[in-house]
Amino acid sequence: MxxxxxxxxxxxxxxxxxxxxxxxxxxxxxxxxGYTQGDEPRFIDWLAYARTGRLYTRxxxxxxxxxxxxxxxxxxxxxxxxxxxxxxxxxxLLARLxxxxxxxxxxxxxxxxxxxWVEAGPSVLLKQPRxxxxxxxxxxxxxxxxxxxxxxxxxxVVLVQIMAVEELAPRFSEALLYDVELERHxxxxxxEILGYQEALEKHLLLLRSVARRLGSYAFLRVGDPIxxxxxxxxxxxxx
Length: 239
Hints:
Strand content: 25-35%
Strand order of the largest sheet: 7-6-5-8-9-12
Largest sheet: 6 strands, mixed
CATH class of the largest domain: Alpha Beta
Distance between the termini: 10 Å
Number of strands: 13
Radius of gyration: 22 Å
Helix content: 25-40%
């Protein structure tokens, strides 16, 4: 597992967390700036000089240590269908990978092999100061929150959304359901189920698009092989 790390560069092209503009460090070109006394001659861009007659220095992106704060959704809906137990496995894996750079629990200090779950759910993030570094948010995404505003407030985020097959494709046509988040019963039929699935598809698309602009996103079904799924969806990358 030491060959992998959590990806912090946005899946979609926006500025990332580990890179910063430092001349002569890293491998990725960042920009040119006018040569000033003290710049290393080996980083002068002679092609730019040939075109313009002026000296420019190439600036590269260097890698800086990241800091990860893990927010683990402990709301009531996470207790259904084995989601929390599965999320616990995912959280331990990611936290162990993050430890060399800095792995912390939201409101609980440094990760030392134990996890703490936030029973109030992700909505509390709107009321609290932004955590330092990158926030790793493990949730089913079913909290009735202003998700775009919340993710934007976090700034740099790795969103891992965990749901069960039963939530994605309900198999019944009529039922009396109990909403554990709102604590109320609801009668549903085929029309409500279709409406739910359409709304869920739009919700998943929204979370995915916003999270990928800010960092990375993965959607996991309970029971999915964790590492292959996180690699395929860009939450993990090779060092």
